[in-house]
Write a structure and sequence with these properties.
280 residues, alpha/beta, D-Maltodextrin-Binding Protein, domain 2, 2 domains, five-stranded mixed beta sheet, 9 helices, 13 strands, 39% helix, globular, binds glutamic acid
């Protein structure tokens, strides 16, 4: 091969590489901020949690987290038509923020020290408590009753972690990808109980197909302070989201979202938390 040809070929490759890098740079800036392409904002929610974040048969989304996220997005300058919802399962949340897949996450996401090493949080905007969901005729009434029993929770959740650490270290814990899978396992008899936040369990228990079949133990096994997760270091967004959450409470939209989404499940929620104050 003659040298000139080789040089020309290398130059072409180099030019392509440079173009690709330039494009890649722009792309990653867009998705990196979670707010690129066409003035849209990408927001992480759950898709399988009735009352909090649920994808409906018609493809729309409903729940308290969805309403909070929609309100916050509006305050950030993005109307409902500018929102692109992204499913962020419990185990995926930190990575989704680190990668820049979403601008923020409102997905029953408890604030804790471990997670704060990887992401930043605005809020809290709701205080929930870990509880157990069992069949209505089950004799499980306290946490120690589940030692030795088959218990379902979700990978990457504080619920699963708390079972190991404190609540029932001797339970046979099965960890699934989402709570809807745990509910299926409870119904089929594959597990004896499901554990996570009472807010989530109440939403499932109130679904038509489960009415009268399941009950919450009502144990308040932990304090779960729901925060809105943002990329580590994005303090500007944390500040804006906190201002939006304060406004949501003061203009009564928070209370309305609570009634709309928790009312049907008769979930007795705690009062609106004070922004920046974590209940230990
Ligand atoms: N709030 C708990 C958590 O952040 C449990 C619910 C969930 O998995 O999203 O892990």
């Amino acid at each position: 091969m003659n040298l000139r040809k080789v040089t020309a070929a290398s130059a072409a490759v180099l030019a392509l590489a440079l173009t690709a890098t330039a494009c890649g740079g722009d792309d990653s800036k867009d998705s990196g901020s979670g707010s690129g392409g066409g003035g849209k904002i990408k927001i992480g929610i759950k898709y399988d949690q009735p009352g909090l974040g649920l994808k409906q048969p018609d493809g729309s989304f409903a729940g308290f987290d969805v309403d909070v996220a929609t309100y916050v997005a509006k305050q950030l300058g993005y109307g409902p038509d500018k929102i692109e919802w992204v499913e962020t399962k419990s185990a995926d949340r930190e990575n989704a923020l680190a990668r820049g897949d979403v601008k923020f996450i409102a997905a029953t996401y408890s604030i804790n020290d471990e997670r704060k090493k990887k992401v930043d949080f605005a809020g809290p905007y709701l205080l929930a408590h870990q509880d157990l969901l069992v069949k209505s005729d089950a004799g499980i009434t306290k946490a120690t009753d589940i030692n030795g029993k088959r218990l379902c929770s979700v990978a990457g959740s504080t619920s699963a972690q708390n079972v190991h650490d404190t609540i029932a270290p001797n339970a046979q814990l099965k960890q699934y990808g989402g709570y809807s899978e745990c509910i299926g396992a409870l119904q089929s008899g594959a597990v004896d109980a499901v554990t996570t936040d009472d807010s989530i369990l109440a939403g499932f228990a109130a679904q038509d197909q489960y009415k009268g079949k399941f009950k919450l133990a009502g144990l308040k096994l932990s304090n779960e302070n729901y925060g809105i997760g943002v990329k580590k270091g994005d303090s500007a967004t944390v500040g804006k989201i906190n201002a939006a959450l304060e406004k949501m409470v003061s203009d009564k939209s928070w209370e309305k979202a609570v009634q709309d989404n928790f009312g049907p499940a008769e979930y007795k929620n705690e009062p609106a938390p004070k922004i920046g104050t974590i209940v230990k």
